Every structure is written in structure tokens, then in C-alpha cells.
From TrEMBL:
Chief localization: secreted
KW Hydrolase (keyword) present: yes
EC number of the protein: 3.2.1.22
InterPro entries membership: Aldolase_TIM, GH, Glyco_hydro_27, Glyco_hydro_27/36_CS, Glyco_hydro_b, Glyco_hydro_melibiase, Melibiase_C
GO molecular function, one term: alpha-galactosidase activity
Keywords tagged on the record: Disulfide bond, Glycoprotein, Glycosidase, Hydrolase, Secreted, Signal
Any one Gene Ontology BP term: melibiose catabolic process
GO CC, alphabetical: extracellular region
Catalytic activity entry: Hydrolysis of terminal, non-reducing alpha-D-galactose residues in alpha-D-galactosides, including galactose oligosaccharides, galactomannans and galactolipids
Entry-linked Pfam families: Melibiase_2, Melibiase_C
Organism whose genome encodes this protein: Periconia macrospinosa
Family: Belongs to the glycosyl hydrolase 27 family.
Protein name: Alpha-galactosidase
Amino acid sequence: MGWNNWNAFGCDVSEELLLTTSDAIISLGLRDLGYDYVVLDDCWQDANGRDKNGKLQPELNKFPNGLKSISDHLHSKGLKYGMYSSAGEMTCARFAGSLDHEVDDANSFAEWGVDMLKYDSCYHMGRVGTPTVSFNRFKAMSDALQATGRNILLNLCNWGEDLVHTWGMSISNSWRMSGDIYDAFTRPDDLCGCNTLAPGDVNCVAPGTHCSVLFILNKVAPYADRSIPGGWSDLDMLEVGQGGMTDEEYKAHFALWAGLKSPLFLGNDLRSMSPKALSIINNPAILALSQDPHGRSMTRVRRDTNVAADEWGIGETHVWAGHLHNGDQAVILVNFGGKDIDIKVSLAELFIPFGPGGSAPHNKFDWAIHDLWAHRMSEATAESLIAASTEPERAAILKAANWYNATEIPYEKGLREEDPRLFGEKIGVVKAGGVLKEKVKSHSAKVFRLRRVKKEGEVFKGKSIDRVTKDEL
Ligand code: GLA
């Protein structure tokens, strides 16, 4: 979790941007929700290329005090420092890339105190086309980073090429699986390559840019389950707060990225945050999906394309679901179509991974429905948090709102201790063998945590429901 400058600022980067943004991360309470990586994307390099010793160098007009001073500053604030390069001759913005300079550059990153490297794939010099060729190109940097002895996360950015979801986890911590996101929910755009691929076809040659939230979800759906603790599909940086989507669309985008365990990199200008955007990204009940200790992505249970279309000719609904560490089940019902729709899903269908055809033990219990947006921060509180000018003032606002602080209570502990701030609000029950049915407005999502209703004297006391087999019932 953290922030990356690319979506809001592109190449307009500077020391000042990073430092003022890091102040905002802290004062808005975002660091204490887990957003602790500040990532400098492309365009930090000197346009004249490497120095006479072959080392990458920053553009001094943008970074007058060099890069180590930035990481020192971030570390002193309890934040981490992310940087960017490309496994190519040049980066995507045509600055010097790291291909065949991996050891030198990894050493520079380590010297600069870098904690994460986003590693792009532009200008790869033709070293692409099969999984092995791409794997070797990226592995060179993975090995070089490891050899520095510094713990540096590696975030691959080859847009899903060469089946990265089949090998990314062995050399990196996350891998981008699509072309670049843009600030649109369903709108198709020719700049997003392969937007006419059939569902399930992962062979996209020119992934491009301007990929919508829906496009990215459809692309990752066939292999969402490849995310494992320590290695995650990266759905790209968030667009929340950028202005191109509605509040409901941003809520859906954010919850899906959290539920699918994508890295959560905020992509908006944190120094001019709107109260609405803040109250989306700071919802601890949604963040607890992202940070759930079980560490598996939600997967798509159902996609229905036979629904009323929106203004872009898109009409589809999705049901996404996933198991959580404490036995709860996360469920997201999304309506990408043009009309409000009742979306239904049975317990039998939700729990197919535990036994097909309604045979899962889970199907025999009642499940309480918890709405995870129920305790979204009020607009008035978010507004006063943004407007407050001193640290004590902000701390008082967060305290009065009883806001979750993951620095004090890590999510794993909060979940274990059933901190109510992570569980939304109970709004109903799905009876054993029953069906979850909810009205979902056009271009929005409902986000639930289903909690098994424990029965007095139940036979499975002391034993997690996940370990109960059909035969034991
Ligand atoms: C590629 C990446 C983006 C961004 C730019 C920078 O397009 O996919 O996320 O890093 O390069 O040039």
C-alpha cells in the first residue's frame, strides 16, 4: 500500500512533490492505515543518461539534494521509498533503462535506500516473446537486488506479457497484468490494446494504455487465483479521486482492487484530496479485505453479460467472492450495466471451492450479511480532517471519529480480536441453503462480508468451519 505519482503527475516529478505528498500521507491518517510506500515513477533520471562511471543519475533540477536525502526523510517519517526503472534499453519515457546494467543499478538503488522497485518493460530490445525470455530478462534484476543484501520489493510491470502470472511469483512480489489503467469505469478505448480479446484469452501483445476498470477485471479474472502471499497480480495504480468516475464507481474500483489483493497505490494528488475520495480510501473495513492474513485474491464466481447496456454499450454484472482468514466470506456484486439490477447468488454457488453442488459444509449454516461501506467516514469529518492545519487538531478529529489505526492495531490483530471497525454493519442474514439477493445500482457495487452465524452448542465448536469435511457433518 502506498502512493505513486504516475497517474496524477506523469513526468512532472520533483523532490518537493515527494516531500509534500509524504506530509499529506501522514496528516490525513493514511500512513496509519497502511499506505507507507511513496513511489517515484519514471522521469527522475538525468536526460543525459549515465554518469562517467556508468551510474544512473537523477535530474538535479528536480532532485537538488539527490535521492538518498529523500529516502532518509521518508524513513524518518515511518515511510518507505519506491523507485522505477525498466528492463529495457530505455524507460517508457525514454530515459536510461537498466537492461544489462542490473548489478550497477541495483547497487545504486540500495545505496539510495530504496525499499521497492517498479520494473517496467519498455524498449526490451526484442527480448520478449516467450515466458523464458521475459523471465530471464526480469530475473537478472531480481538476482541483482537480492545480491545487494537490502530488502527491496520487486514490482514487475510487463503488462501481463509472456504469461507473467505463471512465473512472476518466483522472482518478484507483484506483476502488472494489463496495460495502463485510465480514469474510466467501463468506457472502452482503442489505446487499450487487446480490448477485443475473448474472455480468458490472456495472450495480448500490445497491452497499451487507457484500460478501464472493467477491462482490467475481465483480463485478470481467469487467473486471479495466481495471487499468493508475497506474490500478487497488480491491477495498476488507483484512480480514486482523479475526477473521471462517479463516487459509486470509485467505491467499486477501490473495493475490487482491495478484494483482489492488488497492491493499493493511490494515484491522485494527496495534497488536494476531496472529502469523498478520502472517505473511500480510508475505509478500514475495505482495507481489511486487502490485508487479510489468508492472502488470497477473490475470484469471479459469475459473469452475466445478458443485462441492459450502459452508454458505452457495456452490459454485464459480476459476482466476486473469496475466503477470508477467519472463515468469513467476502462477496462483491458489481453492476457494470445501464440499469439497476437485482443480483442473486446462492450459498451453494459462493462456496463451490469447498464442495460443488451445494455439498460444501458452509451451505448448511446461516450467514450474516455485513455491509462494508456502512461506516464510511462522514463527509463532514473528512472535510474537517483535510482542513485541519495542525497535527494535534488532526489527531483529535481521528480520535473523536474513533478511526482505525493500523500502526497501533495491525489488521491481523484487529481481525482476530473482532474490532467492529473492520466488520461494517450487519444488514441481514442469508439462511442455510439460501440465496443472497441485493439491488445493485447501475455502475456500482455492493461489498459484503458474510459471517457464519454461530449456533448455540453447535457440533463444530473449537474447529474452524473450513476444516469440517462433508463426512463430519
Ligand atoms: C508504463 C507503465 C506505467 C508508467 C509509465 C512510465 O506505461 O505501465 O505505469 O510507469 O510506463 O513511463
